Amino acid sequence: MTVRVVLADDQPLVRSGLRVIMADYPDLEVVGEAATGAEAVQLVRDASPDVVVMDIRMPGMDGIEATRLITAGPSTTRVLVLTTFDEDNHVYGALRAGASGFVVKDMALDDILAAIRVIAAGDALIAPGVTRRLIADFIGRRAAVPERSTRPVEGITEREREVLTLVGRARSNTEIAEDLFITVATAKSHVSRLLTKLGARDRVQLVITAYERTF
């Protein structure tokens, strides 16, 4: 299967660099380039790519708003946000907008390409360093407004609540299994049921739910 990709970044060198690299991989095909968020949205409508590699800071419509419009529409296109590490304060906004992954430009190129494939396959991915800082930022914001009460997640079991909390802490299925003394298969089953019960598109949405409702 060939993954059809749109590259959205206002820096031509970034787009051309990624295009040249992907040309060496027969399973990846660049079907369009965009320099603005508005162009990215239009390309999704015209080319129906599997994945948009989306920068955040672009002139006019930024990557977060473009992501929101893409994921709110009928398209099945998924968004992988690719940006510089010092912009990871935007992670939460991007994920809330519907992005399925968030990676940074200083990652190894092989890891970025692997992330594109992961997103195209229907999974979700957040760079580990970004995840740690996102969690720290979220907890810090929650501590700043202690009067805010959490809304409990309804319709899930206590064990599923434990699993959801661990998903929110970026724990893998293997790590969840180790933490709760269950098998990896059981951990996967719990995550699958949570996706269904909470109507979440992917693991990233479970992370957001965990931040908002369980931390």
Tell me what the structure shows:
There is one protein chain. It contains 10 helices and 6 strands; from the N terminus they run E-H-E-H-E-H-E-H-E-H-E-H-H-H-H-H. Helix 7 (about 160-170) crosses helix 9 and helix 7 (about 160-170) crosses helix 10. The chain has about 220 residues and is of the alpha/beta class. Helix 4 (about 90-95) links the parallel strand 4 and strand 5 (about 100-105). The mean pLDDT is about 85.
Compact overview of the structure:
The chain is an alpha/beta fold and 215 residues long. The protein contains ten helices and six strands; from the N terminus they run βαβαβαβαβαβααααα.
SSE order in H/E notation? EHEHEHEHEHEHHHHH
**Unreliable segments of 5+ consecutive residues:** none
Mean pLDDT: 83
Cα distance spanning the termini: 39 Å
Overall spatial form: globular
Class from helix and strand fractions: alpha/beta
Q: Got a strand count?
A: 6
- Specify Rg, calculated over alpha carbons: 18 Å
Helix proportion: 40-55%
Our estimate of the beta-strand percent is: 5-15%
The biggest sheet amounts to: 6 strands, parallel
Number of helices: 10
Major beta sheet, strand line-up: 2-1-3-4-5-6
List keywords for this structure.
215 residues, 6-stranded parallel beta sheet, 10 helices, 6 strands, globular
